[in-house]
Structures are given as C-alpha cells and as structure tokens.
Amino acid sequence: MKNLIVYCSSHGTTEKAVGLLSENLVGDVLSVDLKREKTIFDLKDFDTVIIGGSIHAGQIQRKIKKFIQIHYDELLDKELGLFLVCMRKGEMAIEQFNNAFPQELRKNSVAMGLFGGEFLVSKMNFFERQVVKKVDGITSDQSKLDIKSIMEFASRFNNLKSLV
C-alpha cells in the first residue's frame, strides 16, 4: 500500500506527529509539508491519503484548506484519514476539527484523530508569543502531544490494509 500524508507544520509539532505516524504505518509513506516542500505528486498514485494540520488563531492552515478545495472530489474516492494537532480538549477540539475539515470528508474518513499539541513559545514570533500569553497564559514551551492517539490512528489504517 502507498500512503500519502499531506500536512502543514508551523513550529514542528505537526511534523513530529507525522514522523510518528509514518513510522507506524504499513507500506510506503510519502510525507509532504505543504508549507515548506515543493514535492510534486499525483493522488492517483496513492491508496490512502492522510491530511493534517494545526490550529492557529482557531483555524487550520490556509494551504491545507486550499489542498482540500482543489482535490475535494478525488479525496472522496480515497481511503482517507484526517487529523488535527491542537492544544484544546473536549468540545472545543471537536469544534476546531469540524471547522477544519468539510463534513463530507469527515463522513468518508476511515480514521480521524486529535493528536494533542504543543506550545513551542521558543519557536514563536513576537506576535504569536503575545497571543498565546494573553489567551492561554502560556509563557514557556509545553507539550501535550498524544502519542496514544497517533498510534490508534495508525492502527486503524493498518487494520484496513489487512482487510484488502
């Protein structure tokens, strides 16, 4: 099986989650950070597509939204996974997830995940640090990456492949 993971990582947390996910998926994996890489690929070459990003000011990255918009119809025909890296929990995290990904894609996904998150204040610019301090009272790096959730997500995909 050939897996494609498309994501955006601003400060490295989503990239860290994608690394863990890639290591635990069965088959070949191509991971593409839309924010940094110019890798050319064709969705037709992949059996599964996983899309993920992080939340900044309540929204997923624009490049993820644009990727979904451009490839929407093709994504509906794929074995699809969606994940979000965010520091919120419970209803707020679910609301952010639902706002990040269109309902039809969520309904057609074989796996969806909330992977926790990190506040990497040391990697933020001045404006980001001020917002995080004002909104969340955070002034130093904090990690709440949910490794268990990442492993469960990978397991759902691996189980799917064993059925094929």
Q: What are the segments in which pLDDT stays under 50 over at least 5 consecutive residues?
A: none
Biggest β-sheet: count, sense, barrel?
6 strands, mixed
CATH architecture: 3-Layer(aba) Sandwich
CA(first)-CA(last) distance: 10 Å
Structural classification: alpha/beta
Give the SSE string: EHEEEHEHHEEHEH
Question: What's the number of structural domains?
Answer: 1
Number of strands: 8
CATH evolutionary superfamily: Flavodoxin domain
What would you call the shape?
Answer: globular
Structure description:
The structure is a single chain. With 164 residues, the protein is an alpha/beta fold. Helices cover 43% and strands 27% of the residues. The chain has six helices and eight strands, in the order E-H-E-E-E-H-E-H-H-E-E-H-E-H. A hairpin with a 2-residue loop joins strand 3 (48-56) and strand 4 (59-60). Residues 4-144 form the Flavodoxin domain.
